[in-house]
Model the fold of this input.
Amino acid sequence: MVMGGVMHIDEAAEAPVNIRVPADRSQVPMIRAIAETLAVLADFSLDEVADIKLAVDEAAMTIIAGASADAELTVALTAADQKFHAIIRSWFPADNALVQQGFGWHVLQTLTSLVAVHEGETQRDGRLVAIELSK
Done:
C-alpha cells in the first residue's frame, strides 16, 4: 500500500533493483555487493547469500566477456519470499557467442535453481544476450 508516496517495505521488496553500468569488469564488485545486500535483507541464510553473490558475479563476468567494447550492462535483481531472481544482459557483437562451458559455467549451474540464456535476434551490429538466474 502506498501512503504519501512512500511504499511499505513489503511492497518495495518485490520491486526489482535495476542497475545500468558500463560492461566492464571493474563494475562487478558493486553489482555483487548490491546482490548481497538484497539477499541479506530478504533473510537468506549466509550460505545462500554466498551462493547468490558468486552466481551473480559469474553471470556478470560471463556477459561482460562477450559484450561489445562500449556496451552497457543492465542488471535486474529481485529478492522476496526466499526467492532471488536476476537478469544480467548486454549487447554482443554479431560474431561473439556466450560461452556456456567450463568451470565458471558449471559453478553457475550448481549454485542456482535456474540458469537460462536468452538471445535476441541478430541485427547488423549484434544482438542482446542475457543470463537469467534464480535461487
Summary: The chain has four helices and seven strands. Residues 18-134 form a domain with the Heat Shock Protein 90 fold (CATH 3.30.565.10).
